[in-house]
User: Fold this.
Amino acid sequence: MSADVVVRDVAQIPDGWRIARVGDVANVVGGSTPSRTRPEFWGGDIPWVVPSELTELSGRYLQDSRESITMDGLESAGLRVLPAGSVLLTTRATIGLAAINTLPMATNQGFQSLVGKNGTDSLWLYYCISSQRSELERRGAGSTFREVSRDGVRTLPILLPPLSEQRAIAGVLDSIDEAIERADEVITATERLSDALLHELLTRGLPGQHSEWKEVPGVGTIPVSWQVARLGEVLKLEYGVSLPERCRQPGSTPVVGSAGIVGFHDHAYLSGPGVVVGRKGSIGTVTWVPEDFTPIDTTYFVLPLQGRANLRWAYYLLDQVDLASLNRATGVPGLNRDDVYALRRPIPPLTEQQTIAGALDSVRVAVEQARDERETLQELQTSVADALLTGRVRVDQQEQKGMDQLGTDEV
Assistant:
């Protein structure tokens, strides 16, 4: 529900709520930049924030800044220090990103930040203004940089619940965001495990499976039962086929280009599963295709030599190699398969290749499950935020009473 709809349809305002403007619940504070030619203005104790720091931020809280200014710099630019718990809001070029500062900060001119007045919960204000990003972008003006003025922020209409319900709403949304952050941590940790395990399994095999080792010059220490061979001795790279977009017929079989699936066709050139390697353009990108498919002529498709290579293991092996570094073209990047064939790598027995591929698949599944859970939580956060911030769904009244008791002094 947009702010304009809220204002037009008064009948939808929940009991105890009212229509307000951002300026009713917060002071809107702009930013500025001290002179760069005055070194005495820089490197002080006051954190000074630019919009790109919010672009790079993961989460709701900004705890530090890349640059800092002195009190002289602050005064020279007419800046105001934003107290901890303010809502920093980008309003120039990148419009509508928000964060809560955990310590006093100042900002450059790319912000119109919100300092909550009495009766306003800062976390609720963060969620409220974040939900208005599309409206803020609509209010942006300017030919070089789109910008929302202070008045544009101050006059933005919002639905204002009582303080107790603000806190209850913020608590629910904060809980979901904390779950999203935990999911992000799981994804990061699992991806790191996957990267480390990929290298370990492809060079040393499964942990505890080998007790005898040999040193191979230029390769390193590998199990005694493994060989070292050039990739051309275990697999072949064959050219994809010409299938321009104008020649494709409506269908469901994927057409695979250098960077992955680029379209669909009514029949397949190859039976799946398969591995496709970017040959021109996005060179070195390795794509696993689980179904029948057609690789186009900017790619190679992989044919493991019988008895020498497992296809899934070959996928992981090629994905681990920095194939893009083999580019020798001066114009459009290109990958010569002879350069790939010349690479020497440890080659385990075929049965062990299958086991290694299975272990890597298990980690890959864990990563995908974590990503799916994160996506589900993000969808939940979006829908719950819309329902709670518009009052279509009310937070449990018992929870509100508890919040009332906690916030009596501030009301």
User: Anything to note?
Assistant: Residues 3-160 form a domain with the Adenine-n6-DNA-methyltransferase TaqI; Chain A, domain 2 fold (CATH 3.90.220.20). The two ends are 28 Å apart (CA to CA). Residues 87 and 140 are 19 Å apart (CA to CA).
